[in-house]
Amino acid sequence: MLDRPRGNLDPARLNSPPWRSASMPATGLFTTALSLSRFYDDVHRPDGRVAARLGSALHAEYLAPQAVGHDLFVDGPVEWSLGLRVDGGEIGMGGIGGSCAWYSPEHDYSFAFVTRSLGTFARVDALADAVEAALPSQAR
Questions:
Q1: pTM over 0.70
Q2: Residues 109 and 99 sit within 8 Å (Cβ to Cβ)
Q3: CA-to-CA distance for 18 and 48, rounded, in angstroms?
Q4: What sign does the CA torsion over 128, 125, 14, 25 have?
């Protein structure tokens, strides 16, 4: 069963210093779509800022599949790195409410969509289709 920490919908609690400084996977990220797309544009680059912070060996390990198999939550095959989904060379992560961000090596672009409401991935799928349709034909 999916659940959320008590008070997760209370803006006063969410904006409090203790909440913002806590380490909570899957609920503790405060960001914008622009920042996420910039992160995904950088994370795959061996000469990027993430690689510079991690060093080349750790950066390569960070992006390499660490767990491969059937994911019971998404009910399908997945490849996970150290925190990112890396299926077929695409690097990304989705969220329960429909937020999603990734880098596509096939099309050489990064993308991010964040939402303040719960929903499916139908919105982000439609946006991704529109972006890829607008790319020059050699990028498709």
A1: yes
A2: no
A3: 31
A4: negative
DSSP 89: G
Residue at token pair 């795959």: 44
Residue 25 lies in a domain: no
Residues in a beta bridge with 19: none
Look at residues 49, 42, 126, 117 and name the one whose alpha carbon lies nearest to residue 84: 42
66 backbone dihedrals φ, ψ, rounded to 5°: -110, -25
- Alpha-carbon distance 66 to 8, whole Å? 31
User: Per-residue pLDDT tens for 71-121?
Assistant: 887 788 999 998 899 988 899 988 777 889 999 998 899 999 998 777 788
Between CA 96 and CA 1 the distance in angstroms is: 13
Specify if 58 maps to a domain: yes
Per the structure, the complete domain to which residue 45 belongs is given by 31-139
Q: Does 23 reside within a domain? A: no
Q: Tell me the residue ranges of DSSP E strands in 17-132.
A: 67-71, 76-80, 91-94, 100-104, 109-113
Helix (H, G, I), strand (E, B) or coil at 139: helix
Query: What is the domain count for the chain?
Result: 1
**Token pair for residue 12?**
């006063």
